[in-house]
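hey so i finally got around to running the thing on that chain from the lab meeting. sorry it took forever, my laptop kept dying and i had to restart like 3 times. anyway pasting the input first so we r on the same page abt which one it is
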Amino acid sequence: MNRLQSLALLAALTTLPFTLALAAQEADAPPRAPDAGLSEDAAPEELSVEEAAPAFEIRDGYDVDIEEFQWTHRPVVVFADSPADPRYQEQIDELLQDIPALMTRDVVVFVDTDPKARSALRKKLRPRGFMLVLIGKDGGVKLRKPLPWSVRELSRSIDKMPTRQREIEARRGG
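ok and heres what got predicted. didnt touch it at all, straight out
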């Protein structure tokens, strides 16, 4: 495992927000010619994790216009009446278990744990207590669940969607 892959793995396991794109960026980059004129003990150019690619993060959903993500992302919205709700905490833990799977499926996660704020998401989706909502790239609500779901369950639901099927075909070159 090279330095960039190690850095990406370390970032994935320890921090939020982070990126996993360093390894992919290196794999996609054309081979570099050795730098002329550098001594053997010269340090190679350092890459910053922040510069690499878009980061996965869990965002506040209080002032979000969900339509901004239409055709580019699949929003997952997690509602709870309090951040201390055990179902909310379990859901966040579940989402953090497999971030690469979420990133591959263009998932962006929003949370709203303040019912008194009456956010636009709450007005549109009308949750009662804890609720997980999956919104498709077309902007339609694809899934509502009153209990936490694993990334595996979410991934399976997303992978059955026609838009996702087309994305998979396009990546295969078909």
